[in-house]
Each structure stands twice: as C-alpha cells, then as structure tokens.
C-alpha cells in the first residue's frame, strides 16, 4: 500500500489516433441533404435524427424506423432558450468521437475514451485482467494460512469492491466545456468505467493476499505506446481500505494507483519533476510541485482539477477539437 515510483521503459510505438473526414456541407449526399432539411429545427429534433447512437437518420417530417434504438435526448442548456444547432454542431453530432488504447503524453497509463454527444459525457474505460496471488508465510510468519489465501468469495468481493471504489472516486469530479465557435453548447461530465477483460486488457492487476491491517508496497508499471496486454499493477488485498499516508484522511491505495493507470505521476515527495506538470500548466495555467497534501496523487483522496488533465487531453484527441477546457 506504500507509494512506489512508476516504472517506465522505452518500448513500442507512439499513440495511434484515428482520423475522420468531416462531411462536406456542399455535398449532395443523403447526409448533407438531411442536415440541410434540419436547419432551424429544435436541437433535440436534430440530435434525434443525426446521432449515430440514436435512431436511424430520417428526413425532417418523416417517420422513424420503429425497430431502431432510441437515444435519450439531453436537456437544453437553458429552459427558456432551446439549443439551435449550428452547421458545425450538426457536422459534429453526425460522427462518432472515440479513441482506443490511448496513452497520454506523460508516457504513463492506457485507456479508451469516447465522447457521448447525446449525454454530454466523456466515458473513460480501463480494461483490467485480475490475477489473485497467495501471500507469503515467510513474510507474515504469524499469519494463519487462511489469512494469506483467496477463495472464490473473497476474490469476487475484492474485484467488486475495486470496480466500485475506483469508478466512484474518479467519476463526475469535474467537467469540461467547449469554446470553439459553433460548438459552444458542448460540455462533458466524466464517467470512469473499469471493465474486467481476459484479452486486450490495458492493465493486469496482480493482487496479493495479506493479513488484515498489514502493509505491502503497491505500484503501476507501463510501457510507452498503445499496445495492450503488457502493462501491470501490483496491489494487495488491503488496498481497498484507507491507510494513513500523512493526509487528513486515510488514502485508498487502489484509488491512488489508478491515477497512474490513467496517466498521472506521483505528487508526494520532493525534487523530481511531476509527470503531468506540463499538462497542468497548459490546461490550468498553474505550476504544481511535489509535496504532501490531501490530493489523490499525494497523500489522500482528493481528485482536483489537475487530476483530470489526461482526460482533457483524451477528449481533445477523440473529438478532434482543441478548444476544450476544465470547468473549474
């Protein structure tokens, strides 16, 4: 559960970002004709017709395919002033916005990111393979054998606790807004999802069973690049419980280590450069330095705006729009 430096080795290619061509507004294609027919319609109507996650596109005034899936319509930004889509927003809504196996510019971490237009949400997904290991009787000679072994029930309980704790602590802490002309109505909350996966996982979690109240070191190791099934985290059975690290509250080791899995470096200690310091300076205009604090990448659990900078970077890459910022 102690903090350990993140180990990185140089290996693999850089992050691959999918590119998409924008629809030509002057084209006579069915999609262009549909957009033209929707101009001046309420935004909810345009979104319903154009969203790739929603109903099959159909011309204004036409009937929807009753077998098609429907998508929840977001509430207008103002109750008194409904959104009217601009040509830029129409083009944006008509395309998917996702990036797979994204490693931030920090050279740490790996995750998927998708901007869900309909729900105004950035979905960050980390696929994890769980591996449970017995503890060492030599290291804990006073422990009973049962305290060092996993069974089906304890494995399932720990896995469930990890997914819930990490997702809850890292989701919906801050949001993003867009200032690009024509797209100013866009915003994004954050939903973090941890998915169990036996193939194409971003991280293998090696979880060692130790006695209750005992201590063991935890760490995350990543290779540079977008290759899956090569990064791993070393955790223990006590990482879902708060531990005194010098903050005003006990820190959850699993929550701290997840910060490394999404591209953040340690902030405790002194001297060494913080991996995400440049991103923080560019996004928030402030300099961060090492030291003990209640922040999640230091000594406690507070997820501050500075800890969303790798999500911000992924949002820009997945949407192809640079004019996003953290709404403080």
Write up this protein:
By secondary structure, this protein is α/β, with parallel strands linked by helices. The chain has 2 domains: 7-18 and 96-327, no CATH class; 30-78, no CATH class. The protein is 22% helix and 20% strand. A hairpin with an 8-residue loop joins strand 8 (219-223) and strand 9 (232-236). Residues 1-28 and 53-82 have low confidence and may be disordered.
Question: What's the mean pLDDT score?
Answer: 83
Largest sheet: 10 strands, mixed
Q: Compute the CA-based radius of gyration.
A: 23 Å
In total, how many domains does the architecture comprise?
A: 2
Strand content of the residues, in percent? Answer: 15-25%
Q: What's the number of helices?
A: 7
> In whole angstroms, how far apart are the ends?
31 Å
Please supply descriptive tags for the structure shown above.
328 residues, alpha/beta, ten-stranded mixed beta sheet, two-stranded antiparallel ribbon, 7 helices, 12 strands, 22% helix, 20% strand, elongated, disordered N terminus
Short description:
This protein is 22% helix and 20% strand.
Topology record:
Blueprint: E1 7-9, H1 30-38, H2 43-50, H3 87-93, E2 98-102, E3 111-116, E4 121-133, H4 152-170, E5 175-178, E6 187-196, E7 203-208, E8 219-223, E9 232-236, E10 242-243, E11 251-252, H5 253-261, H6 277-284, H7 309-319, E12 324-327
Parallel strand pairs: 1-8, 4-6, 4-7, 7-9
Antiparallel strand pairs: 2-3, 3-4, 5-6, 5-12, 8-9, 10-11
